[in-house]
Write a structure and sequence with these properties.
about 140 residues, alpha+beta, six-stranded mixed beta sheet
Length: about 140
């Protein structure tokens, strides 16, 4: 029983790391393949500072939102500071460097992401981002 739990946790950790890497690299085909058809993505923060904050439903809507962020910003030196896996859920605190592709402005920023899986796919993706820092990169 313990080996199954460890193996399952190791699989979830690898999946979360793959999701973060795909997000950083702008590999939206990978993210879409790892997402349930009815995925909910919620980018939580101050929309006045970061206009992409909002809730997105379904693969196409979620992909479009994340692609728009990637067009404006690049992510560098992303690291998971802490990761918790509990069954079909994972939560991670992360940090990295964010650079505005248009202005070249960059800053260190932090965030928190909560993932809920169903049948090995991302069913819900909630991300609380440091919109105060992101807002300074305009």
């Amino acid at each position: 029983m313990l080996e199954t739990g460890v193996s399952f946790r190791a699989q979830r950790v690898a999946l979360v790391e793959r999701i973060l890497q795909a997000r950083v690299n702008g590999d939206f085909n990978c993210l879409e393949a790892l997402s349930a058809p009815d995925i909910v993505v919620k980018l939580i923060g101050d929309a006045a500072l970061f206009s992409y904050c909002g809730e997105y439903h379904g693969r196409a809507d979620a992909r479009h939102a994340l692609e728009r962020v990637h067009v404006e910003f690049s992510f560098h030196d992303m690291m998971i500071d802490h990761l918790m896996v509990d069954g079909e859920q994972a939560a991670m605190r992360w940090n990295g460097i964010l650079r505005n592709r248009g202005t070249g402005a960059s800053a260190h920023f932090e965030g928190f992401t909560h993932l809920i899986f169903e049948n090995g796919l991302i069913k819900e993706y909630y991300s609380l981002v440091d919109t105060a820092t992101m807002g300074t990169l305009k």
